[in-house]
Amino acid sequence: MFENAPLFPQRASEIARQVDHLFFFALGGAAFFSILIAGLIFYLGIRYRRRNPDDVGRPPAAHSNATNVLEATWSLVPLALLMFLFVWGARVYFAIARPPAGAAEMSVVGKQWMWKIQHPEGNSEINELHVPVGRPIKLTLTSEDVIHSFSLPEFRIKTDVLPGRYSTLWFQADRIGEYRLFCTQYCGAEHSRMTGRVFVMKPNDYQAWLAGERRGRAPAESGASLFVSRACNTCHRSDTAARAPILAGLIGRRVALQGGRSVVADEGYVRESIMDPQAKIVAGYQPIMPTFKGQLSEEDLLQLIDYVKTLKASGGS
Amino acid sequence: MDRLPRETGEPPKVHYLNADYGIRSWLLTTDHKRIGILYLISITVFFAIGGLMAVLIRMELATPEGDLFQSDMYNRLFTMHGIMMIFYFLIPSIPAVLGNFLIPIMVGARDLAFPRLNLLSWYIFNIAGVFTIWALVHGGVDTGWTFYTPYSTRYSNTHVVATGLGIFIAGFSSILTGLNFVVTIHRMRAPGLTWFRLPLFVWSLYATSLIIILGTPVLAVTVLLLAAERVFGIGIFDPSLGGDPLLFQHLFWFYSHPAVYIMVLPAMGVVSEIVPAFARKKIFGYRFIAYSSVALAVLGFLVWAHHMFVAGMSIYAAAVFSALSMLVAVPSAIKVFNWTATLYQGAISWETPMLYALGFIGLFTMGGLTGVMLATLGIDVHVHDTYFIIAHFHYIMVGGAIMGYLGGLHYWWPKITGKLYPRFWSRISAMVIFIGFNVTFFPQFILGYLGMPRRYHVYPPEFQVLNVMSSAGATILGVGYLIPLIYFIWSMRYGPHASSNPWGVVGLEWETTSPPPTENFETTPVVTRGPYEYTHAEETAGAR
Asked: How far is B33 from chain A (nearest CA, A)?
């Protein structure tokens, strides 16, 4: 009966194993307390059942020391267990939230009702995600319309995908296979059909897949073209005559802003600077950049960001 | 029907039900007891509508394909199910029906502090319901009861504003009821009725009223901002208008998380009455239970963002909210342990209200413990927005709040109507509901951990076996709800007359007649002891 109806999900990453261990611990605690309470109710309910219609129970002893000890026990023991669970849960959460260095980066755009995935090599796919086994993958996700959520149950991870900002999600598959992708944030009529598949492949097979699929331009190349066609390069030059901040080596650097604040430049910062240039002005520059709001698609923006990432601090472009 | 001889008795000649006749005497009444009955009728209608939606949802989900409805229709069904059940049934249920009826009697007063405001709140509630039913009849709304932006403000072309307006108006009815309770409990207690002699039901409704008064205005503001963006295009939540969609989620959950305590605290209050009554024993840890109600009301306001752990907020903020959410489990655990300890050395009878109350304790415990799992950050990421969440909050709201409501209705029904209902069928109903509930919702925990997302009209075929189990359980649960509906209606006409104290318990409400006179007590009672003093009851009974 249950061959095609599993009771527990497959596990395809080390993080998934960590989440399951945490879950088993919490489940054990929940089972213990549920059975304890149910057992006590049945035992006491039968042991002290009313034998005579006029029976009255024996009142608890007036506020005694024993009562206080009992109350303290069933407050403090759960509290200690809860705090233990909190710390463990937060550690796993931080591990889920923080991608390791050197991850392969891909971008995802969600729209009603599909996922478009862009590989750095230029391949793009709809509702399918091909990844090599054993390599950390970092996804940068955004939405063109409403909030979606990118959920990979076999990897025990998900993140909401919002319009107007970037979310990140990372995973490292350790098992070859085909896994599920769901949209888990209600997004309209066809929400339940906004699903897909993740294909975890041997590195060689992945390379073959990349080569065999019809390959578009690499997003960074498209970004380079946009950088010229949108005339970004007239101000963002790499020489000293630049009227705008030099972009080489920008991502990951701390940028000093007007007014004394500073910000670490990430994808979201670059996106904001293109769409809403007046929001954060780099110290020493004039607020002269026009907004590109409404002129660039989410995919254009991701391509521009990919291009900016290729500009290395030494040498520049 | 086997029953003790003293359960039946002669009804008083004049009581609040026959003091006046005719439709006007009901629609213009300011008697808190009659208003309680008006609310009972209103919320039963809303429960039936919400329940019908649930039946249709479970029918559709019996197969993986979408073969009964279009997706558009399915989305309207789960949205309306949530809105009806939360705003029009669960939130008013125990406070507006049982609270309205019992609080003045339990504090020894003649009525609530503001009787006409009380009637007004019932009218406001029904006007709100009319808005929502209008929206329902004219095509419904498809945003989910959570109204997440920008879907609700820009993309949905259903009746978002009309539904929102209904919820906005319903909020005022809640606020008026809450205000009335707070003032009554502060100002109208009988001589000698100190705070620590109040029944725990009153304590829990006091805490509930504070949440209602402090939280509901935030919901009202949120709904207004939503309407401003949808109707006038003012950018508040929509990023394409310069708004922030997470701001909506913060505002929405700032009310809607405490709303969970609006639903479950009153049920805890009912259980705190039923358990000592049917153990015929003073409740264990009275002050701990009373204070834990207040602690839940306060902590309930500090944990809203645990609904947003994967929404894209700072991971450090998430850690803070996770830790605070863990703390909620402590007062909940205190209550469960104290109720259980009350059974020790009691004289326990497994009457119908007790079955419901003990069922509540079991299901609430499971709901609470799975809530702890959800507060655990590393687990929540995986099960967030899956059927695990659905199962968890139905354990709290159906297993908790509705079991509490039905337990309370069975406990006080003889007082409210002056009639008894069949013991056999009522005990059957408690067990059918308990079993049906678990068969419906337990499989959903497994589905959720497997990854099945909530609000899915079609789903992968490997989830079908568990979904069929859940739908089968829903059928049992539905039958379980119909049985009390039938015998309650039967009992109003044919049920034997209840004595003033059919359960043989203590409490001010059992010292007046069944049903009580319009003024509740012939003379204002003077209270000289705590609420659950059973040895005294026995002595006085012997002396009589």
From this structure: 30
